[in-house]
Amino acid sequence: MAFSLPQYSWRELWEKGWSGFVTALKGMRVTIRYFFSRPTTVVYPYQRLELPVYYRGRHRQRVDANGIPWCIACGSCARACPLECIHIEASATPEPPDTKRRRKLDRFDIDLARCMYCGLCAEACPQDCLMLVADYEYSAWRPQDLVAPLSVQLRPEPLSEAELRYRADPASDPAPAKPKPPREASAGEGGEG
Amino acid sequence: MERGPIESLVHRLFAGLYGIPVLGWLIPIVLVLGMVALAALVLIWLERKVSGHIQSRRGPLHNGPHGLLQTVWDALKLLVKEDIVPSSADRLIMLMAPFVVFTPAVLVYVVMPFGKGWTVANLNIGLLWVVSVLSLGPVGIILGGWGSHNKWSLLGGMRSAAQLISYEIPSVLALGAIVMMAGTMSMDGLVAAQDQYEFVLTPPGLIAFVVYLVTALAELNRNPFDLPEAESELVAGFVTEYSGFKFAIFFLAEFANLLALSMITVTVFLGGWQPPSVLFFLPDSAQLPGVFWFAIKTTVMVFVFQWIKWTLPRLRIDQMLNVCWKGLIPITLGNLALACVWLLLTEKSWAR
Lengths: 193, 352
Fold this sequence. Notes:
The structure holds two protein chains of two kinds. By secondary structure, chain A is an alpha+beta fold. Chain A contains four helices and eight strands. Chain B has one domain. The radius of gyration of chain B is 22 Å and the shape is globular.
């Protein structure tokens, strides 16, 4: 015999069999509860999660009133980047226009395909210019199309109240992510996708 | 009455051409085949929906209302896929297997009482026909497992043989108690015997019902008895090497079997097309036609089968055989004795 089966008394046999039956019913009670509860999935294109302000999505650069980024081309972000996906080229400006900047940005590319969204660049920024915002919808067909130039990084709109609050005190936890009500009356019924 | 030539031909086709009622057979066959194919599509959709909601997902959503057309597109995709046969496979056996599985699954519907008088053939051995035809299915599974020339397939086929041969016995013994109580094997007779109360409401009937549910799960190769195609152990068991149309036929047969066994359970234990006896207070004017009751009960049974499938984990092969030989067979044998006692105690049997 390769293995021997355990021998049970009648009493043990009954108890094992009965407990198996009862636990199966208990399991079925659990699953039927889940069946009638709301699904936890979010039907993404029709429904979106409300993301917290500290979500680290793509990069944005804050701009002044003239639309010029606050960046002083110091290169701290590029040095802080563990993956070296930030490429900065700058030239000296002999006469600063209206700011005290002495260097002018020529190129500020971020390779989003390489980035791991750690946010170290934003932490390193002395000007509080570079930041990661809750935007994650920028897919492309080819990885080289994911290199974001400066022009797509500009953020003209001011910081929202929640962002300001978070920057003032990162420990103040904003509301956790929860699904927004669907855009349409019934999610996913129209075969739009 | 004078008949025109076409009218006369139609009449003869119905009544019998050389003793064969061509249309009288053809129309039910086409209806049953169509119903099976359509029901399988809906059942696959239902399966995915039920599993989704049990796992807190949503299931198919986008094709048609609530994803109803999803299985149609899936079926079309399967039909246009390349049919791959392994070079070392036995081509004929591998080709035969899906049809050997599918044919019994459809043949069962011949004796099914869908409604009052809605039976294709009211055999007086209807239940025996069901049992014997359903036991042909594993032959096809073994053929598929052998013909594929694949270790996973062969193991799946062998497990199917072991499983089906074991579980036929308690299944038939459970049905035997019901046959004793009804005094008939005809499906219509079984329904008629439940005009007062369903067999599931009697003590031997309840035990037989529970045992039959377990054996039906085993015969359907569904969780917790899905050993012939146990995904984590055998890739896909006997369907490992199948693709395209043949795979679709296997899939269709699986769901045709699911529907058939639900219908058998409804007919034998739950009163068939009659309204449930617990609703006796309903006035006659509020009664639905028998077909609707049959459809409602069948849908509930299908849901129960799927509910069980998505709840219970798979048994090990030795556990599965132990449950059958050491658990179900003694229970059903005892249940036969209980049915005798029950027959002696109830007045119905005194009257007979």
